[in-house]
What we know:
InterPro entries: CBS_dom (IPR000644), CBS_dom_sf (IPR046342), Diverse_CBS-Domain (IPR051257), ParB/Sulfiredoxin_sf (IPR036086), ParB_N (IPR003115), UCP004699_CBS/ParB (IPR016427). Keywords: CBS domain. Helix content is 36%, strand content 22%. A 5-stranded mixed beta sheet has the order 5-10-8-9-6, with helices on both faces. The protein has 2 domains: 3-120, CBS-domain (Roll); 147-268, Conserved hypothetical protein from pyrococcus furiosus pfu- 392566-001, ParB domain, CATH 3.90.1530.10. The chain is built from 9 helices and 11 strands.
Amino acid sequence: MSDATSELSTPAVKGYMTRDVATVSPDDTVEEAVERILDSNHNGFPVTDGRTVVGFISARDLLSADRDAPVFTVMSDDIIVAHPEMDINDAARVILRSGIQKLPVVDDAGNLVGIISNTDVIRSQIERATPEKVGKLMRTLEEIHGVSTTEERREIPLSDLLPTQARVYADELEGRRYELERGLAEPLVVIDNPSASGELEDDGTLVLADGHHRVMAAHRLGIEEMDAYVIVIADHVELGMERTARKEGLQSITDIEVMDYARHPLVETTRRFQSDEE
């Protein structure tokens, strides 16, 4: 297991929180707070007196408030906060169960040191799930082919990938597009299979093992490279997924067929059942 993977096994809030936090003062007016929200991508701010968190003001709190009223008269002062050493899973539970989007992070003295959002929590889950997936695939390759493997993290040109899935579904591409635009996309999983010839000018094949919908969504967005966990095989092996790709006529991601949702096999099966009943 790599050092990066072991570090992610027990993640804390401090590893994912935003440290540079925009705040408002309890003595600021509602109008000033509204202007701050309009000038930013935030939907609310921690309210701090010095460095101490005394409340939170959200756009909802400001909707019906008098524009000249001080923030402390309309802010929420009974708020949930997190500690930087708090397990990210515990922070996720708090965020999901409370329905809030952001938790101010305070130290033992109650001073604001960061903020953790539902987006940060999602990112933490992604970063732990992918290494587990990669480790399982590495062990499988080593057991089946009797080769040694190593793991790398790098940006991969999409044009260099050999896909192993002949089709993707259009409806799923929308979800992957949403993730990509918000920086939430899971890294690809790629197998670097060296050349059978051993010639230096032949770099081998970058086999896309996981992430076909992400790749196609990225391709549609004009993205040329993506973050990937790369499993590097020490010596060339004949991969079953590579043989399957060749049989399907797949040479690049442009050969992947995008299927309309109406042609999804599960939908077709449901329609067939309905027709049989009629």
